[in-house]
Amino acid sequence: MQKTLTKILVFALALILLGAFGIQTTPKAPEVDVSQTAMINTMVAAYFETQTASVPLATPTLVPSQTPIPTVTIVSSVVTFPPPPSLNIASPTFVFAPLSPLATAVPNLPAAGSGSGSASGCYNLAYIRDTSIPDGTKINSRETFKKSWRVQNTGTCPWMYPFRLVLLSGEDFDAGQTTVLRKQIEPGGSTEITLELTAPKKSGKYTSYWQMSDGTNLFGDTLGVSIIVP
Predict the structure, then answer these.
(1) In contact, 219 and 211? CB cutoff 8 Å
(2) Number of domains in the chain
(3) Is the pLDDT of residue 61 over 60?
(4) pTM of the model
């Protein structure tokens, strides 16, 4: 069908061109039929419509729209903490109880460490051994020395810090109000107690006896010290 239309179109164009330039193929050309001319024009128009319909229409390409990037807003928050509460801590108050005066000499005292001492309420003391300056040790005149004993709490109450040894009889060796405990001793516990003493000025043998005091009452075994000043 398409080839037939092409031939008719070529033939019609040839006729038009011959007519335009006045070329006559024969001495007497017949007149062109109007109906034939109209038919040719219709066929030419149909041909162009067919060619137009055979060409596929271009499909429009959609350009993707860009999605706007959301704007991130950073909000900085400042946290304020309340100031710490002030602590009003009262300083501890220490109350020192006055020490009782030295005990006076007691006649007919038992031998030191004999275990014949008496208890006072829940307090008691047992002598174990000497740990320094055995009896009969020579000490120079006015020389300072330390006498120590190992003892045990045989009572039912703990010994407290202010407990001390007090002089029962004999030479005081310039001991004065000496506190000997440095820690609390529980019942059944043992410890070493020490006196700082000074030898007398004159030559001779010197002996003294001491006993533990809770500040009011004496208790436990007597503890002795005996030296020789040459």
Answers:
(1) yes
(2) 2
(3) no
(4) 0.51
